[in-house]
Amino acid sequence: MSRIYSSILSVFVLGAFAFFAAPAPAQDGNIPEKETVTIEKTLPNGGTVVVKKVGQEAAYATITIDGKSQEIDAFEPLSQVPEAARAAVEEAWNELGEIPKKTIKVDIDVSDAPDATEWAERARSRVLYWYPKVVAMLDGEEAVDKIPDDFTIKLIFKDMDGVAYAAGREITVSTRHIKRNPKDFGLVVHETTHVAQAYPGVRETWAMEGATDYIRYYVTEARSNNHWAINPRTSKYTDSYGVTASFYDWIVRTLDPDFMKKLHRVFRIRGSVELFFVEEYGKSCQELWDEYVASLTKETR
Ligand SMILES: [Zn+2]
């Protein structure tokens, strides 16, 4: 029995409260696991470094020294890696292409919220790491070379309602939200993706937020092999965010690995996503969504 079975089952049990606020760690048996590349290195002091890269992007190192292990994500600065393992980790990142070839600048404004300084620094390392990668994912590697040398993203922290928003190259984060959710660095990836999208105005917002959350949950948090739990009876492809993202994940894995790049071009020219599906795949969004849902529920009948 695949793990998606239990997620779907729990949705049914929840009945009227069928919306999940967070992705469930489950994997549909019909969808191939993301490819994982592993590099192992032995340190002169007898410790080990094991670096794993899941899918296209998410990479992390497990460093074991004197029997104690710790994990470090590739987006953390090398200064966070214990000195004895630093050279080995850097070598592994290079072998995996994890050292960004283009650096950008990230300014932090915590003038309204000095308490947020530490969180802001951790957010900053994620923006520095992910921005060029998201540009490569959406526009191709050539576009990364064209990022101007002085390209700057500003992170502003404010005491406000809501979570966060991006406007141009500015990302504003609610300090109330991060106080309640100190581990929610995924919001930083979501907003960084909006900066890279730079759309001139969007006709189908659900489709855009689905793309943004696809990059968050299925690329940058791929190592947990997230799978957003949907309710086959009530979820719709227009539900946006994680639900739409899970639909895109299925399309990428089973139909078209270049789907995200193509979708990105539709948004850039203010095209219609509904029309794009019919022209590109010969099926409407609804028809493909129905196929996706059928693939999820097959094993539960
Ligand atoms: Zn958004």
Describe the structure.
The chain is an alpha/beta fold and 301 residues long. It folds into three domains: 127 residues, no CATH class; 60 residues; 93 residues, Zincin-like (2-Layer Sandwich), CATH 3.30.2010. Helices cover 44% and strands 16% of the residues. It has a four-stranded antiparallel beta sheet, with helices on one face. It has a four-stranded mixed beta sheet with strand order 5-6-8-7. A hairpin with a 2-residue loop joins strand 3 and strand 4. Helix 6 packs across helix 7 and helix 7 packs across helix 8. The protein is globular, with a radius of gyration of 20 Å. Zinc ion binds next to helix 6 and helix 7. Zinc ion (ZN) binds next to helix 6 and helix 7.
Overall form: globular
Output the radius of gyration.
20 Å
Tally of strands? 8
Mean pLDDT: 85
Structural class: alpha/beta
Helix tally? 11
Low-confidence stretches: 1-30
